[in-house]
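Priority: medium. Attachment 1 of 2:
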């Protein structure tokens, strides 16, 4: 047969759209033509496929070969189409029956020797094949990661000859080795943090409701220590959340180990990071730090050191939970449902009461943060210096395990009541799941107007109060819950004080 059809998958954001590889061999001068909007890396597959077939013992047709990658309007990049192109040529030249390809999809880059090299984005490929009801053949290292996708038949291959023998039913493909289990990483414990009971309380509220958190305090008070201990008190990822996180890491060329499969990601980019590094981008759109923090924590230390324009690009993803990247030739959408944790000093000198910085200098320093950006952070607290003698005391602090039990109980209440964390509630859902007594609603609205806070802050205070009530296993939000939620607006109070 001179025509062969092989199925593969492209990479488009988090999606893996189907690509039909059509190979036609006809009479004429020897040529190898590749069409279907291929980029340079795909066009170079002509030389890789030719050498891989010859070095593997296959006869390379000395005729005109036309390869079409359909659909023609979908850009194709990378070496992932090498394997399906080679199989298409083998079938079209009569060295393999076409019916042996039925029910399979193939992705893999070929070395000149015929070995199959890894690709990027195996998790979305496996998910798409599962939804299409086909089995997938991947490079062995990719198959190791892809086998974590449930209800899909994944095969791993190391050489083109192995795939050929498998399709001829002569011998099975080698077994996919299990992912190596790393030693369980020791999660930092809250018991390591001396004092700071107020900050630990707010950390617990943030974990219970997935609220954004800002910690304001002098250098060396434990802000970074507290942030690093937040993952240890949060609920583990569900299977669906873990799969979504693994898919993002897959297209970014990173791997998730079985040991940390259900552990929430914790990303801490340096303050010199660009806007593209945070939100993603590039000619071929790639996920940024906020997408790599999906279902996890994005920790920004020394917050005012980040350029203001860089921080302001986070405003929309903080509200929507997704990031849209548009380029001239490509558009992509990545999930970015992350929990922002930020730390900053109250002045450029590290303290705001040491006399080394004037109020004007402090205001100029803090004004690097825009009001709309601060408005999106529900919990804002001061982390003060420890009292004299606290560091030398040998007191037993509460462990992360005991705090996590309360957080899990509160999160179970939220999932049973509304199916999501409190921080993810929309405006209409707040009215349904966070009702206030009439007197309490008037009290909160009067307070918002008195301090000239926004309507967004009004709703965020109600969400925080709902989380406080959930931690206490109380069905109704009370005045005490609202007052505690209102007290967690430290940066706004500091700015108001400096302006006066």
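Attachment 2 of 2:
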């Amino acid at each position: 047969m001179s025509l062969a059809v092989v199925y593969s998958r492209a990479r488009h954001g988090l999606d893996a759209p189907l690509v039909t590889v059509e190979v036609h061999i006809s009479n004429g001068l020897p040529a190898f033509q590749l069409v279907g909007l291929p980029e340079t890396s795909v066009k170079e597959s002509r030389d890789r496929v030719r050498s891989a077939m010859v070095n593997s013992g296959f006869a390379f047709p000395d005729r005109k070969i036309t390869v079409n990658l359909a659909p023609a309007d979908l850009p194709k990049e990378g070496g992932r189409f090498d394997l399906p192109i080679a199989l298409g040529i083998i079938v079209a030249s009569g060295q393999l029956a076409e019916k042996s390809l039925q029910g399979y999809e193939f992705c893999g880059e070929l070395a000149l020797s015929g070995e199959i090299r890894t690709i990027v984005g195996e998790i979305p490929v496996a998910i798409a094949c599962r939804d299409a009801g086909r089995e997938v053949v991947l490079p062995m290292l990719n198959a190791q990661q892809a086998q974590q996708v449930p209800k899909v038949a994944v095969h791993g291959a190391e050489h083109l000859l192995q795939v050929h023998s498998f399709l001829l039913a002569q011998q099975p493909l080698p077994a996919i080795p299990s992912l190596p289990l790393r030693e369980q990483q020791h999660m930092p414990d809250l018991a390591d943090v001396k004092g700071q009971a107020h900050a630990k309380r707010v950390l617990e509220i943030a974990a219970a409701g997935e609220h954004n958190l800002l910690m304001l305090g002098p250098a060396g008070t434990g802000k970074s220590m507290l942030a690093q201990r937040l993952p240890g008190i949060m609920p583990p990822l569900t299977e669906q959340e873990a799969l979504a996180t693994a898919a993002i890491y897959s297209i970014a060329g990173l791997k998730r180990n079985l040991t940390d499969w259900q552990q929430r990601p914790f990303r801490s980019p340096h303050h010199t990071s660009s806007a593209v590094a945070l939100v993603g981008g590039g000619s071929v759109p790639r996920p940024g730090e906020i997408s790599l923090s999906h279902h996890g924590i994005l920790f920004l230390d020394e917050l005012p050191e980040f350029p203001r324009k860089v921080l302001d690009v986070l405003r929309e993803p903080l509200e929507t939970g997704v990031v849209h990247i548009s380029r001239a030739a490509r558009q992509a959408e990545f999930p970015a449902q992350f929990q922002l944790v930020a730390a900053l000093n109250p002045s450029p000198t590290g303290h705001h009461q040491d006399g080394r910085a004037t109020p004007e200098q402090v205001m100029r320093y803090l004004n690097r943060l825009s009001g709309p950006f601060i408005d999106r952070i529900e919990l804002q607290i001061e982390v003060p210096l420890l009292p004299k003698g606290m560091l030398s005391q040998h007191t037993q602090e509460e462990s992360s395990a005991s705090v996590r039990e309360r957080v899990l109980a509160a999160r179970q209440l939220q999932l049973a009541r509304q199916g999501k964390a409190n921080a993810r509630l929309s405006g209409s859902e707040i009215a349904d799941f966070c009702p206030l007594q009439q007197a309490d609603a008037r009290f909160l609205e009067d307070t918002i107007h008195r301090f000239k806070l926004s309507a967004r802050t009004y709703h965020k205070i109600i969400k925080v109060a709902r989380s406080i009530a959930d931690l206490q296993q109380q069905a109704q939000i009370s005045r005490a819950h609202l007052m505690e939620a209102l007290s967690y607006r430290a940066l706004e109070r500091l700015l108001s004080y400096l302006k006066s």
